[in-house]
Design a protein that fits this description.
This protein is an alpha/beta fold. Helix content is 41%, strand content 19%. Strands 3-2-1-4-5 form a 5-stranded parallel beta sheet, with helices on both faces.
Length: 166
């Protein structure tokens, strides 16, 4: 059913939930796992832009390497990549260029004005992807709140979207 699964990461604990689900799916379907970190451009004259970009790239390399190691330990073939640009665009471009069958992402649960002003990378991917997108709802416990039961694994089935029929 799935040969190539993409899991974008920002290195956060919340993103780790999608990683676990993606590794499980890759194991189930004997699929390759693609791990992607996108370095978003920084535009400001207030500090060392190149230094910040370099730090973000290093963070991305560490995050993708750790996930690739976990996949390898599970017997899954994994490919890691760092891209530079607008996250949702880079995720979609990567999926298209590498023949990805499924994208697995975590929702970070922004609401209200934050969501309005910042938008949601996951929402933009879900709305515009040409392949199915599985969204994993970030548990409050992963964010350090502890408000939800840590054993409650939830995938938001209403957010998954199948590819449009041609």
């Amino acid at each position: 059913m799935y040969d190539d699964i993409l899991v974008p990461t920002d290195g956060s604990e919340a993103a780790a939930e999608a990683v676990e689900r993606a590794i499980d799916l890759a194991t189930t379907y004997d699929a390759r796992l693609h791990v992607l970190y996108v370095v978003e451009p920084v535009y400001t004259a207030d500090f060392d832009v190149q230094g910040v970009t370099d730090a973000l790239e290093a963070e991305g390399r560490e995050a993708t390497a750790a996930i690739a190691e976990r996949a390898d330990a599970a017997g899954i073939e994994a490919t890691s990549a760092i891209e530079f640009g607008t996250p949702h665009r880079e995720i979609l471009a990567y999926a298209d260029e590498h023949g990805v069958d499924l994208i697995v992402m975590t929702t970070h649960g922004r609401t209200g004005i934050d969501r309005y002003l910042l938008g949601s990378v996951t929402e933009k991917v879900v709305r515009t992807a040409e392949v199915p997108v599985m969204t994993i709802h970030a548990r409050e416990a992963a964010e350090g709140d502890g408000a939800e039961d840590a054993d409650d694994e939830t995938a938001d089935p209403t957010a998954a979207r199948d590819a449009p029929s041609n």
